[in-house]
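Structural prep section.
Before we set up the soaks we want a predicted structure of the protein with zinc ion in place, mainly to decide which crystallisation condition to try first. Input record follows.
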Amino acid sequence: MTTAVRAPAFTEPDRPKGLLIRFVTTSGSYVDVTGHGEHAQDNRWNCLGCGDTSRSPEQSYLFNIRPDANDHATACRAIPLT
Ligand SMILES: [Zn+2]
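Run finished without errors. Recording the tokens verbatim:
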């Protein structure tokens, strides 16, 4: 069994201001987590593949946003259209 990490299929876009984490998706796109970090409640995620974003809540502490963003990156199969 191989444990090799799949290389992104697309060029990594510029990193926006406030980027905390960037997950690569199943199809090689990215899910960005932005905000003010661990102790702030304004962290959110958005997917550069399908355009989905964090909801329920839209913004929260990083410990809430991080696993949702990672789960989306694992499930999302959209490729960037740019
Ligand atoms: Zn997505």
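Observations: Residues 19-75 form one domain.
Flagged for discussion at group meeting.
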